[in-house]
Amino acid sequence: MCEQLAGPELSRISLPLNRGCVLDYPGAGVGVVGRRRAMYINCHTSNPTSPALTFGNPSVKKIEPKLIRECAARLRRTRIALGFNTQSALCEKIGIRPYLYSPFERAKRRVSLGVALKIRDKLGIPLDWTYCGDDSRLPAALSKELEQRK
Q1: What are 83-137's pLDDT values in tens digits?
Q2: How far apart are CA 148 and CA 140, in angstroms?
Q3: Which residues span the domain enclosing 38?
Q4: Longest dimension (CA), the chain
Q5: What DSSP assignment string belongs to 12-60?
Q6: pLDDT digits over 12-35, tens only?
Q7: Rounded to an integer, what distance in angstroms lies between the CA atom of residue 45 and that of residue 52?
Q8: Are 26 and 78 part of one and the same domain?
Q9: Are 47 and 116 members of one domain?
Q10: Is the residue at 114 inside a domain?
Q11: How does DSSP classify residue 129?
């Protein structure tokens, strides 16, 4: 594949570096091409087989779906315990659009750090509660309300 793309006379080929794209190939690296970061493949390696492009970051651990569902349930319970009957009302309070928040409560995506920080700053909900379920630093009134709603 490398010879087909670059020809044997070139020492490497460059590809745009997309977020989450990892090049799993001996002789691969990341360099700067002009102002843009790029992945490159060293075409003259001892292994003539084609490079294996993999997407995703293998060094980042996948979050289990069960943990995402638990976090989503905590978000929903917390929203209701705080007196926000709709996601839109909560989103207005913390300053985000409802379409960004909705996937978090439906467990379609894990809660982004940016949104978790907005919830912490505007409503006083600690990150330990949002991500891990540790209720030791929750405000007392909210902790009591969540216990009653279990």
Answers
A1: 999 999 999 999 999 999 999 999 999 999 999 999 999 999 999 999 999 999 9
A2: 12
A3: 2-55
A4: 72
A5: EEEEE--TTEEEESTTEEEEEETTEEEEEEES--S--SPPEEEES-TTS
A6: 444 444 444 444 444 444 444 445
A7: 14
A8: no
A9: no
A10: yes
A11: I
